[in-house]
Hints:
Helices cover 36% and strands 15% of the residues. By secondary structure, it is an alpha/beta fold.
Amino acid sequence: MFTVNGTTIVDYPRFQHRGLLLDTSRHFLDVSIIKQNLLAMSQSKFNVFHWHIVDDQSFPYTSNNFPDMATMGAYDSKHIYTQDQIAEIIEFARILGIRVIPEFDSPGHSQSWGKSIKDLLTKCYSSGKPNGQYGPIDPSLETSYGFLSKFFAEIAKVFPDHYVHLGGDEVNFDCWKSNPNITAFMKQKDFGTDYAKLEEYYMQRLLDIVSGVKKGYMIWQEVVDNGAKVRPDTVVEVWKGGYQNEMSKITSLGYKTLLSSCWYLNYISYGSDWPKYYNCEPYNFNGTAEQKKLVIGGETCMWGEYVDNTNVLSRTWPRASVVAERLWSAQNVKDANAAAPRLEEHRCRMIKRGFPAEAVNGPGYCSQEYSIHEPV
């Protein structure tokens, strides 16, 4: 006679969007590293890879319609993602149950775009003359929107997810203010000296372009803060400090909302810093029950200024796992002391599986330690 133990597990996610951002512009990440990160994500129940693929520093995306953007905008010819590699990453993620949402941030964060696209960026002026510097995308030229239409028509085909992240953050107005053509355009549009209206004008045109290729869009909070009209299905990502007031504001406007403000893993410190990430609660803002329903999840971010192939995995893991637990588990699962041994066990599990997950709880050991091959 045999006795079989019967166990019933009831488990489901609290939030539908459980994301992790990697930045491949400040430092290029090999396809193999991105795949390893996707595997680690799947083992912590993340389901969205927010791929911040390009930025001021480099443009590693190889465009079919504008191949010179990578040729001239990437660090060099080795630091690019081909169309085949991008398709490979998307399919690898899909098998793991992970969506890939690319971010092409503009009108700021676009210096690498302008290296190949003539007159895309605003010419900056000093003493009435161009000074050789360039600012955000020039919103006064129709050629800018012609380029954006063709570019995002391509992006809509390359990335199958319904959403594209359009950025819209940290737009510096100084160059716009210095340019006489921009000044004349502002006067023509009756914007006065309110350059936030110019940014709103640009973003509205861009949002219309992306809507036209049947894509939804995610944006950073500044777009709504500056008054742009966006579609009802827009997802707004809150990333600045004082997120409680911002979450209350965005949800009161009826928009789906993501939180990332308190989950920037690139800010490192000595010791066990993970409890501050664990203690962050997306519902911690004043709002009605209907507003809380608009919070669809959050994202933890690893910006790339100081990480590359050598350390991005160890710096991300297992710290990202604590964010994953808060986004998956019930709201009352919030005791950091109770989470500490779970995190320790999970780290050792990751080590056993070959991930270089860093120590996060002070002195200790794993029964199977991480090892690497001798360098050649």
